[in-house]
Amino acid sequence: MEHVLSSEGFQFPMDDAGRTTEDADQEGGLQKNAEFFFENIIVQVERQLFQIPRRYFESDSEIFRDMFSVPVPKGGSPDGSSIDHPLLLEGVKANDFCQLLRVMYPPSFGKPFSLTLSEWTAVLDLSTMWQFEAVRALSIEEIAKQDIGVVDKIALANKYQVTDWLLPALNALAQREDPIGEDDAGKLGISWALKMASVRECAVQSVVRQGGCGNCQYGTRCYYCGFTTTANAPVAANGQQGCGNCSSGTRCYNCGCNFVVTSTCNTGRGAKSEVDFTERIKTVFGL
């Protein structure tokens, strides 16, 4: 049985009367269902071929929609129309592409996905690159459920612009007692590692002479009422030495940084975990 190409570039078998199955269907009064008549495309990733429904790639991704809208030269064959003319996706690993397809076309209806952290990361990478917004949102949600270290989470948040993760993860790293190590710098990049080191100095460099803000060196003026405290100020409601006037805590009047007011330098273990670095992080990282 011979084959001919449709106007979209897809092959239909031709019967002995010289009619394609498409012609025969139309002559017999049959119509293609607008929602559930799928046209497939042939995709090549590395040395592997995939035959998949075109619809979701075209409807859910502006990148692929533009790709499919490129005019085909007269007498040419559209990419993806056959095994001889596959749509070649370069710079992508076949295994990563498989993970994306597993999410787009779940093998088992109603069952939870069983992808690993690295597999979900691959899905996040490809869905971000190709602008599959719904798949990207799902991958972010699933990665958040995984047991992921704070440095890895910061690296992912920075690379893929997951803004909801970034500030809380940076604050958690600033509060971590262990110093920024070589592995951390490798994942974060030198620039971000140096910025984090600057943020963490906020706790170590407490102003001993005043027991004030280690962020801006401003002193101990209360953020809320403007009252100036001293190093031996009364213990505030939050258990730290704070404002003896309004008992609101230890937020700096000048920069908003929360600091630990002590009469001596508080750099023992646990000191950083008591400090909220959020305002300092916003300033240093420009968030």
UniProtKB/TrEMBL annotation:
It comes from the Eukaryota. It comes from Jaapia argillacea MUCL 33604. This is BTB domain-containing protein. Residues 1-26 are annotated as: Disordered. Residues 39-105 form the BTB domain. Gene3D superfamilies: Potassium Channel Kv1.1, Chain A (3.30.710.10). InterPro entries: BTB/POZ_dom, SKP1/BTB/POZ_sf.
